[in-house]
Design a protein that fits this description.
The protein is an all-alpha fold and 283 residues long. The chain contains 13 helices and 2 strands; from the N terminus they run H-H-H-E-E-H-H-H-H-H-H-H-H-H-H. The protein has a two-stranded antiparallel ribbon with strand order 1-2.
Length: 283
């Protein structure tokens, strides 16, 4: 009789498990959902709004807020990191206030309040909680450090506007900070923006449709980012691929200030760290 590992069915099951784990890992790294998940989300009446240029948002929401469950694709018991943090914090505060327990948070770390979930061992429930609490702590520390770096660079850049390298570095640090905020404390604001403007590419379509008429317009733009340029040139820069990026790199300080203006709410929304540190451009 052939050993179990030589069985075709056994090998097929193992290969499928490996494939599922690779897809899961790729989804986490790229912050893009798989095709099967995308199809399921597009059929959902609410999640459908998150599918236009924001496939990453559904991944982040799931990672932060999903209910506890055993993931058959990864073979790991999982729960949203923010959900684990909320349960731990709520139980610890309640225990500390009601029982005057000064070790309430430490007891919560050790899983004193964890409730049984089917046949899942207590050790696995505790490991999931601790893994998520560590994740929240590390992400918060990393974001704090990143915000501090961005704040310092923004102030240095304001004092030396002719230093191209410094302007570029401050702009890139601000973009990285905004990306980090979008996947953490800024999730709620990202959901609001998605519901407020679900059709992300609509402005680009409008610019393309208006381009033929704008080609005949030589009027000079009086204010805004394109001040001093003709309406014709503004239209070209908005529509032609690469031209706007080239223009942005030529006007780095204006590009940075514009980026901050449109993204500052995301950085500050429900985010005391970002609100306290990233204030350099508000002056």
């Amino acid at each position: 009789m052939a050993p179990e590992f030589a069985n075709d069915e056994y090998l097929e099951i193992k290969m499928q498990a490996i494939t599922d784990k690779v897809k899961r890992a790729a989804s986490q790294l790229d912050t893009q959902i798989t095709q099967s998940q995308r199809t399921a989300a597009q059929r959902h009446f609410a999640m459908n709004y998150l599918m236009t240029h924001k496939g990453w948002l559904s991944v982040k929401i799931s990672d932060r807020t999903k209910n506890a469950h055993y993931n058959t694709a990864t073979g790991i018991y999982e729960e949203g990191s923010y959900k684990s943090f909320y349960k731990w914090f709520e139980a610890s505060v309640t225990d500390m206030v009601s029982k005057k327990n000064i070790r309430a948070f430490n007891d919560g770390w050790n899983g004193k309040d964890l409730e049984k979930d089917g046949d899942v061992p207590f050790e696995e429930l505790l490991a999931t909680r601790r893994r998520n609490l560590r994740r929240v702590a590390i992400e918060s520390v990393f974001f704090t450090g990143l915000a501090g770096i961005a704040y310092a660079l923004l102030n240095y850049a304001d004092d030396d506007e002719d230093n191209y390298a410094l302007q570029l570095t401050s702009y890139l640090s601000l973009r990285v900070l905004n990306e980090q905020a979008s996947g953490q404390a800024g999730l709620a604001y990202q959901m609001y923006e998605t519901l407020d403007s679900p059709f992300v590419g609509l402005a680009t379509v409008a610019d393309i449709l208006a381009m033929p008429l704008n080609m005949l317009d030589s009027e000079v733009v009086k204010s805004g980012r394109y001040k001093g340029e003709t309406v014709r040139m503004r239209s070209l820069k908005k529509v032609i691929p690469g031209l706007k990026t080239f223009d942005d790199m030529q006007k780095l300080k204006d590009t940075r200030d514009t980026y901050y203006f449109y993204n500052k709410n995301n950085i500050k929304f429900f985010n005391p760290i970002g609100a306290a540190l990233v204030t350099g451009l508000d002056d």
